Amino acid sequence: MTAAGDRAFLVGIVLAVFAGTAAAQTPTPADAAFKRGRELLKAGKYADACIEFEHSNKLDPQLGTEFNIAQCSEKVGKLARALELYRNLLARDANPQRKVVVAEAIPNLEARVPKLIVRIATPPTGLSGLLVTLQPVQGVVPPREIEVNKPIEMDLGEYTLVAKGGGIKDWTATAKIDTEGKTTTLEIPVASIPAKPLVGGGTTPIAGPSPDGGPVDTDEPDAAPKSRRKTYAVVAMGVGGAALIGGVVFGSMAQSKWNEAKDVCGGTTCASMDDLARASELGDAASDKASISTLLVIAGGLAAAGGVVLWVTAPSEHEVRMTATPAPNGGAFVVSGRF
Fold first, then answer.
1. Which CATH class is domain 115-188?
2. If we measure between CA atoms, which residue out of 106, 104, 100 comes closest to residue 85?
3. The architecture CATH gives domain 3-111
4. Which residue from 49, 237, 270, 334 lies 20 to 30 Å from 99 (Cα-Cα)?
5. What is the pLDDT of residues 127-167, one digit of tens each?
6. Cβ 149 vs Cβ 120: under 8 Å
7. Residues 78 and 54 sit within 8 Å (Cβ to Cβ)
8. pTM for this structure?
């Protein structure tokens, strides 16, 4: 090899070594994000630090990055998230220093983390198909399915809950989780669906919620509204009777006044002008009372007659209805009504 060739060869080796060293010193995007996260964490900008750590871990998952995510999550109130990460690290991380910190942090967070319980009573039809989801009000986190009647560890914040299916009406509620260590309970309302016995055995459900939230159709006609005609008839006959009694009383008073008028003049001719005036006065009083008696008797008779008509024409209270209804052990007839 010539001298020029040797120099060219040496230059190539030097360039290759320099390029390799430069490449080794250039940080990857994951490393750059992790470094930014550490700087933000030291500056107390915990929310921004969490964003950088999450980005770094997405590019290059590392246990050390998860440890830092747990630390900044705890600072911003994401206690459930931090507790979940610490529990995973305790089982997987071999770093002795981090393991000590994690082991101390878990019981502390378990005492601080708030919980949410979504309660629902189990109806006779069960809860098959029920879906309950939870989603933070702020942010772009998609809704996640949760279990009912079970405590759920929560981050601090406000959440929207939605329940569908399972034979209940669609339900939406908002839960505000703002106190560490507190358990918040929400109740999903469920209308009970009782069962009624059938003639011949078995049971059949009566009106209650259907899977789509509406009433269940039992194919049984509604009971006819009870007529009040007989009530009106009793009232009319009572008023008529009272008016007839009043007419009789006023008639008796008129007869009494008329007898007094005749007695003043001896039944024929009055002896003086005073007797004539007195007789005329009693006669007028008798006439007035007779008129009142006549009006009361007529009104009472009409009211009583109307009451009788209402009573006679009132619908019968003895209504019988028979309905064929399927039962688990065969057919059955339901007999209902007023007897």
1. mainly beta
2. 106
3. Alpha Horseshoe (1.25)
4. 49
5. 788 899 999 998 778 999 999 999 999 999 999 999 998 77
6. yes
7. no
8. 0.49
